[in-house]
């Protein structure tokens, strides 16, 4: 049976940063998936469309493959190599995105803000991990 004093001691000793970091580390794949979904909809971390295709024929081909970004807006998905090359590593309070596909740097030169989450994708991530953070805190204080 938990006493108020016992719970108070546990709450006083609780380091929420550790709990939050543990949850983020266990959700590295989820964070990368959110970034991929944001790109698939043709948006950067600021919620802006990626720079339009210059070649109309290619834009038509890509629109037939994925209409979500809107006509002429890239999603950077063709073979899937770029998307598969996106991973995330949590290091302390830093979310580090790792890009392993050789064309990554070319794509970032074209659109520097393609990595990172914004708008509804950031909120979606928060909504997904919030219950885990609450559960982690409850477990640490014994509730």
What does this entry show, briefly?
This protein is mainly alpha-helical and 143 residues long. Helix content is 55%, strand content 8%.
Give the helix/strand layout:
Layout: H1 4-13, H2 16-26, H3 28-40, H4 56-65, H5 81-84, E1 86-91, E2 94-99, H6 104-110, H7 119-141
Antiparallel strand pairs: 1-2
Helix pairs in contact: 2-7, 3-7
Describe the structure.
This protein is mostly helical and 143 residues long. It has one domain (4-141). The chain is 55% helix and 8% strand. The protein has seven helices and two strands. The protein has helices at 4-13, 16-26, 28-40, 56-65, 81-84, 104-110, 119-141, and strands at residues 86-91, 94-99. It has a two-stranded antiparallel ribbon. The longest helix has 23 residues, at 119-141. The model has no long low-confidence stretch (mean pLDDT 93).
Oligomer: single chain
Strand order of the largest sheet: 1-2
**Count of individual domains:** 1
Our Rg estimate from Cα atoms comes to 20 Å
Order of helices and strands: HHHHHEEHH
Number of helices: 7
Strand content: 5-15%
Q: Can you give the mean pLDDT?
A: 93
Q: What class do helices, strands and sheet pairing give?
A: mainly alpha
How many β-strand runs?
2
